[in-house]
From TrEMBL, chain A:
It comes from the Bacteria. The keyword Transmembrane applies. Pfam families: BPD_transp_1, BPD_transp_1_N. It is found in: Cell membrane. Keywords: Cell membrane, Membrane, Transmembrane, Transmembrane helix, Transport. It is a multi-pass membrane protein. Residues 94-297 form the ABC transmembrane type-1 domain. It comes from Streptomyces cremeus. Belongs to the binding-protein-dependent transport system permease family. The keyword Nucleotide-binding does not apply. This is ABC transporter permease. Its main location: membrane. The chain crosses the membrane at residues 12-31, 100-119, 131-154, 174-192, 224-249, 275-300.
From TrEMBL, chain B:
Its main location: membrane. This is ABC transporter permease. PANTHER family: ABC TRANSPORTER PERMEASE PROTEIN, OLIGOPEPTIDE TRANSPORT SYSTEM PERMEASE PROTEIN APPC. It is found in: Cell membrane. It comes from Streptomyces cremeus. It is a multi-pass membrane protein.
Amino acid sequence: MGRYVIRRLLQMIPVFFGATLLIFLMVNVMGDPVAGLCGDRKCDPAVAAQLKKDFGLDQPVWQQYLTYLGNLFTGDFGRAFNGQKVTELMGTAFPVTARLTLVAIVFEIVIGISLGVLTGLRRGRPVDTGVLLLTLIVISVPTFVTGLLLQLLLGVKWGWVKPAVSPDAAFDELLLPGLVLASVSLAYVTRLTRTSVAENARADYVRTAVAKGLPRRRVVSRHLLRNSLIPVVTFIGTDVGALMGGAIVTERIFNIHGVGYQLYQGIVRQSSQTVVGFVTILVLVYLVANLIVDLLYAVLDPRIRYA
Amino acid sequence: MPEPTPRKDDTAISTAGAGGAMDLALDEGASLEQPPGPGRSDRARSLWSDAWHDLRRNPVFLLSGLIIAFLVFISLWPSAIASGDPLACDLAKAQQGSQPGHPFGFNGQGCDVYTRTVYGARASVTVGVCATLGVALLGSVLGGLAGFFGGWFDALLSRITDVFFAIPVVLGGLVFLSVVPGTTVWPVIAFIVLLGWPQIARIARGSVITAKQNDYVQAARALGAGNSRMLLRHITPNAIAPVIVVATIALGTYIALEATLSYLGVGLRPPTVSWGIDISSASAYVRNAPHMLLWPAGALAVTVLAFIMLGDAVRDALDPKLR
């Protein structure tokens, strides 16, 4: 187990550097990193040259990247366009998005898996067809359309929830945004669980469990579910990173000041330090989530042993 | 069988005796799941003609095919069903609802929503089709070569795909398109190809590795076939099915991605007519004039749904194991 973790950690290193380098190149080489510092007007060429010199942007790209990484490892993420430290922005943004992602994941687990088990055990019945159709529709309607429609219906027309989220972004305000963020993944989790449960329900070990007289509840929860959840756990784990990155759209609709909001501002105002810094953290989250998923395998499936 | 079978059948059957035997085995597997229909002939069918046989009888395939044919038609000749000009707007009519001659009403600029919804199909279909073609070509060539040759190229490609998977898609799109601006569809297509190929490359790699281990490929090698002949004649016809399935489903998601990026203001930009742009501008007036949002959003949803249903149907037909 220990050796496996070390090998996985080593594998994460090139991915981390590759992904940050890619974003770094896009922002700093293809884009213009000082353009955002002069406000809406174009920078005066002399000012731009001086700024580039001050920030070390006249040096070769590889040297800039190394300097940036060196600063990262000492906890210096640079400053946003308005002089605010990027780490400060992260301090306010990440807790909000983490809460939003948590709400979304809970929705995925509770609703997605329940619906999946329900339909998987009743394959071909009306409830199965209905849920399948519903998931197909949810997958097809892009998140921003679902979000706008739910905001219009639940928030504005019927007044069940507040249409926008306050800066505190408490859990109860994040229910609707969390559901919207989760919607597409929720549909995938339902379908994945359904397929997996339906497949395993025919397995010999389930027949054995039924034959030896276990109550149906125990067969489903202890034997069937534990084996069926392995692909679902993989999906949800890899989804954590995608949800945090994909929260841009949801946060824009519901005016949530989280990671997506800050990133959007960073991109619109061409604040390269904000963009690269946030993306770096998001890549790290994705990598760690994937590592945890791989380790969880061993817990869920005792047949898998890591040497 | 009166219907013309796709040309691929002939190549799949004529490749090698062993290849035909494998197809026969697949066919038998399929017939176990499904009782033989009335028009089923005794001839050994390849995976492809078997799939086509199933697809023609699948209502989901027919429905989605019909919708897609209609979409392609209106994106080629939008003026056939919408006589107006999508850029001709009259501010005096801004936000007005449905009226004779203008069934969907007017948007915030006073443009006709019906005309704009019809013309918006072109951007979505172009992005979806071009991006999918690019992704499928690049991904299957790189992934296929990596799977076939293995070695350092395979190792390098696997690491590169890992890197691309770690970047959130919408985020990558925002960054890429903010530094490569343009009002046309091409920057968006370039971005989707850039970020989408690793997905197909992984599928193609795995599929080629599976096909490579088949006896008929070993037999071809023993008979002295060169690399290019093995790849083109023996491996490609037997490894391409998963790529086609994933690419078809991806097409729908690429259309949704284009609309999302346009909604965020970095994808397509005016004066290009796009559902994403229209939904974005309508979202500000959604309280007073929801019709401006609902029509383009509905068109977008139906389009994505059609492509995803098509992908589902193709997958069911091509992969008998999944039934």
